Amino acid sequence: MRKVHQVFHMNTTKEIQDNLTFLNADQNNVVAYTLNGKAVSDNWERVAVIFNANDTAAAVTLPDDGWDIVVNEEKAGVDVLAEVSGNQVQVPAYAYYVLVKKAPKATLQVSYRTHVQNEGWQPYVTDGMMSGTKGKGLRLEGIEILLNNNTIGGNVEYRTHVQNQGWQKWVRDDAMSGTKGKSLRLESIQIRLVKK
After folding, report:
1. Which of 49, 100, 123, 151 has its CA at a distance of 20 to 30 angstroms from the CA of residue 81?
2. Cα gap 6→14, rounded to integer Å
């Protein structure tokens, strides 16, 4: 676990002070704290470590819901052994638990930008936002499209129909389709997702 997770390798006092928070354990002989994995770019966004030195089980309240147990009284590792329902966990006598909250999986986004007459390339926008201009009477001349957080394992391909030139060749993944500096408008676009 220590080998693969940066959250257990904080090197300075400041890192530890900034990223370790003790939990309020209502029983003696129980030590519980959380580590901020996000601050050190660990995919375990938060980690809770609980030590119970009592001869009876201890109930510990976690900061919120959605924790997975990766170390319990029987097994230690990086695989999920159990999910905690709610925000309270029972730690058996003379045991320690390590629980994790993984960073949420990034969702696929489609980003794109257009080349506009007299204005050039516009900034990238995502997922249905408008690219280009509105009410200015300026033509779109080119487009670039890419996938962010590509969870589908494929590519985006696209081609444009350009004034006086017809259909362009298919391009993919942030390549330009259309023209720039030729004063020709885009008349149509085709977009498809393809397997790698």
Report:
1. 151
2. 15
Read off the pLDDT of residues 120-163 as tens digits, 9 standing for 90 and up.
Answer: 999 999 888 999 999 999 999 999 999 988 877 889 999 999 99
Q: Report the predicted TM-score, pTM, of the whole model to 2 decimal places.
A: 0.55
Query: Residue 149: what pLDDT?
Result: 80
CA distance 128 to 151: 19
Q: In the predicted model, is pLDDT for residue 188 greater than 90?
A: yes
* 158 CB neighbour count, 10 Å cutoff: 20
Q: 15 exposed, middle or buried (CB, 10 Å; 0-12, 13-18, 19+)? A: middle
Is-contact 140 114, C-beta < 8 A? yes
Cα(143)–Cα(78) distance, integer angstroms: 44
Q: Which residue shows structure tokens 């960073």?
A: 103
Angstrom CA distances, 22 to 19, 25, 33, 161, 193, stand at 10, 9, 4, 61, 48
- Contacts of 170 by beta carbon, 8 Å cutoff, 6+ apart: 157, 158, 159
pLDDT at 195 over 70: yes
Contact status, residue 98 vs residue 71, Cβ threshold 8 Å? yes
